[in-house]
Model the fold of this input.
Amino acid sequence: MLSDEAGMAMTDIARAMLSLRPLARARGAASRLPTGLPAGEAAESAAAVLAAVADELDVPGLDFGPGSDVEGVFERVMAGHLDLTGRLAALGPVAAGDRAAVVTEARKAAAKVAAESFGRHRRPTDALSADGAALPVYEAGEPGRPAVVLASACGMPAELCEPWIELLSRDHHVVTWESRGLFGAVPEFDALGHDTDAQAADVFAVMDHCGIDSAHVMGFCGGSVIALAAAAARPERVSSLSLWHGAYELGEDCPKADHHRNMQALMAMAASDRDTAAGVQSVFVQTMLSSLSAGMAHLVLHPYATPELFYRYCRVNGPITDIDVRGMLAGVTQPALVVTSEDDSTADPAGSRWVAARLPAAELRVEPHGDHISLFTMNGAVGALAVDFLARMGSPLPAAG
Done:
């Protein structure tokens, strides 16, 4: 049996490794991660334990070896998230004679983490869109309660929304999904729809899959455009909506942040063909790394994991960033909350102000600080804003915090 301290270290390792699974699967290649231990029996034992955890959690391609040198951007991100140096020290030395027993304990810890992790929200079957796109669905809370559908940032693993799901599922049936063509096996990506209408229809495919007739739809970042399009297309199924740090194309009526313009230009290039996507992939990765914390990088970098995945991401995300939403606004008469901040340099706050002013039943909240990254950590008062708005829509929630 492991000591309490070693058991906690093992659980931390398993939890961190499970969170790497989307990126490891997307990479589809071996990633060498150092144990931080010098070559020898201790490093071999640690590698055996780590390999057992990865195997139990079905996290592919991780190759653990001695030393501390890390090569490659994605390997650095993975190694930083695992933080093996501190955790292996807490685990303590594993003697050769004890290795089998510790490997067994590692598998038990990993199985327990898997059962209690965010992955428990995953439906065993995917929702299917009208054109056959498979949409991995996650849900929490009791069916039959007021429903909340989360339209997250395009291309991101659903785990990024975990804080929101945990909060809102206390008294709601909460569902979200992962973007078409970017998760799991997608043999016919080029045959799928890639435009905003197709992605708005995904909202209703997910709702049908989960037995939801009508819901509040929350749009995060690019998901705000999908939420708007869904509310305009089928207002009888969207009772209310909230739009969080949306990046909107508004033509000449409203400026865009430099980041938004640059992303549009690079994505248009990458979406033109696979060779171009492969050529600019590394530029995107470096751009994203400059603004990410170590705790989120392994999730946010998912759509950049390979040239093919990056190409697909640009094909799906490009239409969201490019579509002019001005024609949708007057027809979206549902109650709406529009949230931005004073200092968001990614999605210009002026865009949210412009949208809120033209939605017939919208209210605007401008926070002092925040952006599309901090949104997912629920820093500041954003959770309380959601709780308050849903309560006023007739769906009571407990206090945030």
About this structure: Residues 396-401 have pLDDT under 50 and may be disordered. The radius of gyration is 22 Å. Residues 27 and 305 are 5 Å apart (CA to CA). DSSP finds 17 helices and eleven strands in the chain.
